[in-house]
Each structure stands twice: as structure tokens, then as C-alpha cells.
Amino acid sequence: MIEARNLTKQFVRSLKKGKKEEFYAVDHVSFQAVQGEILGILGPNGAGKTTLLRMLGSLMEPTEGQVVIRNREEPVTSKPELKKHIGYLSENTKLYGRFTVRELLSLFGELYGFTKEEMQEQVEKTNALLHMEEFIDNRIEKLSTGQKQRTSIARCLIHNPDIYIFDEPTLGLDIISSKAIIDFMKQEKTQGKTVLYSTHYMEEAEFLCDRILMIDKGKVIASGTPSELKAATGTGNLRDTFFAYMEGGAENEL
């Protein structure tokens, strides 16, 4: 389980005439995502989704609050330890274009302290899981967009994390590549992994997510299963549910 406790991120922006203003990109957000759950995080551009995910993934320090992992007797709170249990994928993930996929995965295996035998075994498991046989020995700069995205996900799972944090993983992909990533998330869920998943594709979220967290202007405005949120708004699909909450025409007790 991963838990956000009162997570807050405050920034300062410049205004006219040299004035400055403090604002909250994420405003005291608390929630839990449990083992074997896919939690969708939805919101418009600028809502604070990426900032929230970066804090959860220990890539950004919160102004206030804490991230806790509690899959064991002693809760994990330190930044280095949190990173060992998390695989993070952002839409801006950069890869080393002159490496082959196999070389890249081997490099990350070394960084995680694998022996040569452990590294080879994990690379082959990852290759089979994401169906990369056709391109695993190709240079990354020669890959298609969908193949690069699968490579990015392979990089995230090489150390077999308990928790995945995916920020727009299917953005701009074709149907086949999107299906491969969605199938991967569903399969990892059956293995007891926790997935935090941000997307703008409402139909995808409705089909895939066990629960939804909607945020706007840095605050949680709704949470629940897709069925619960649709029932609360009297809507028939998650897209209409999303607009109902964004327009302020619905309330959800958190």
C-alpha cells in the first residue's frame, strides 16, 4: 500500500511589475492505494496531477506531508528506500538512443545491484512480459513511439517494484501499443502490484481502474469506484461524470 499524507507543494510565480505570488500546485492531498489496485488519477491540465505523482515517486520534495509504503511491518518513509519499491514512468521519460533495449535494461540492472546472472534472468522475464522480442536488440533511436514506450516501462519494472506510478503512459500511442500497456497493467494487478495511473482517456480509465481520484486546482474533488462516481452524478459514463464534478454540479464525500 502507498499512502499520501497531507501532501502539499507550494510554488511562487511572477506577476506583473515584479510582484510574486505563492500558490498551491497540490493542496493537502491525502489518500491510500492498496495492494492489487489500479487507482486512476484524473484532472484537467494544470490540476496538479504530475506534481502529485512526482512527489509520490520521490522525484520532488513536498512542501508539507509525507509518502508512506506499508506493505511490511515497518513503514517505509525514507526517499532512497521508497525509490526501491517504486517504478515511475512519466510522459517525458528520456532514453539513451544509441543503446539497444537489452543494453539499456542491463545497465539499469547493474545500477540496482544485480549479478550478471540475475540481470540476464530479469531482462528475459521483462522481454517476455512486454513482448519485445522483435526489437530488444535494436537501437532505441530506431524504435517506433510504441516500442519506445514499452522500453520505458521495461526500465521501470526491471527491479520488480511493488508500486507503479504511470503518468500518461498511453498518450499518443496507436491502439496496439496502448493495448500492450493496458494488458501489462492488468497483469501486474493480478500479481498484487499497485498501480497509480494518470490519464486523459476517460474510457480507458473507466475500463481499467478499480478506483478514481479526481483532482482540480491541487485539491481532491471526488474519489470512488467508477460505478460509485457515476451513481453520485446520475451519469452513464465516466466522461460525463468528470464534467459533472468539474462544473461543480456534484459532491462526493471523501
Polypeptide structure, described:
- By secondary structure, the protein is α/β, with parallel strands linked by helices.
- It folds into 2 domains: 177 residues, Rossmann fold; 68 residues, Helicase, Ruva Protein, domain 3, CATH 1.10.8.
- 37% of the residues lie in helices and 25% in strands.
- The strands form 2 sheets. Strands 5-6-7-3-8-9 form a 6-stranded mixed sheet, sandwiched between helices. It has a 3-stranded antiparallel sheet with strand order 2-1-4.
- β8 and β9 form a beta hairpin.
- α3 packs across α4, α5 packs parallel to α6 and α8 packs across α9.
- The longest helix is centred in the C-terminal third of the chain and has 16 residues.
- It is globular, with a radius of gyration of 19 Å.
CATH architecture classification name of the largest domain: 3-Layer(aba) Sandwich
- Give Rg in angstroms: 19 Å
Helix content: 25-40%
User: Which band does the percent of strand residues land in?
Assistant: 25-35%
Shape descriptor reads: globular
Distance between the terminal alpha carbons, to the nearest Å? 18 Å
Figure out the total of helices.
9
Q: Find the structural class using helix and strand composition.
A: alpha/beta
Mean pLDDT: 89
